[in-house]
Amino acid sequence: MLTDPTTGGVTASFAMLGDLNIGEPGALIGFAGPRVIEQTIRQKLPEGFSAPNSCSSTDSSTPSSRKELKLFIASSLDLLLT
């Protein structure tokens, strides 16, 4: 389960090794967050840069909130294990 934010060493190591990676809707997931990028390039990023949009989905089977995750994870595991 990738929560907001999931960046840096977490993304580079264990977080992406799973058979099923689930990100909460609107989560910022990347190798470097906006603060690190700004420090690296020594410039202010434009408004909305690295805006969390990669974990949004219109798929009805994708959870839209944390409350729906338990059922979604159970269904996904059932699918993977059968």
Write a structural description:
The structure is a single chain. 30% of the residues lie in helices and 0% in strands. By secondary structure, it is an all-alpha fold. It has helices spanning 9-12, 34-41, 69-81. The model is unreliable at 53-60 (pLDDT under 50). The radius of gyration is 15 Å and the shape is elongated.
How would you concisely characterize the structure shown here?
The protein has 82 residues and is mostly helical.
Provide tags for this entry.
single chain, 82 residues, mainly alpha, elongated
Which SSEs are present, and which pair or pack?
Elements: H1 9-12, H2 34-41, H3 69-81
Structural class: mainly alpha
Biggest β-sheet: count, sense, barrel?
none
Low-pLDDT sequence parts:
53-60
Computed Rg: 15 Å
Total helices: the number is 3
Please estimate the helix content: 25-40%
Beta-strand content bin: under 5%
Shape: elongated
Element-by-element helix/strand order: HHH
N-C termini distance: 21 Å
Give average pLDDT, whole number.
Answer: 77
Number of strands: 0
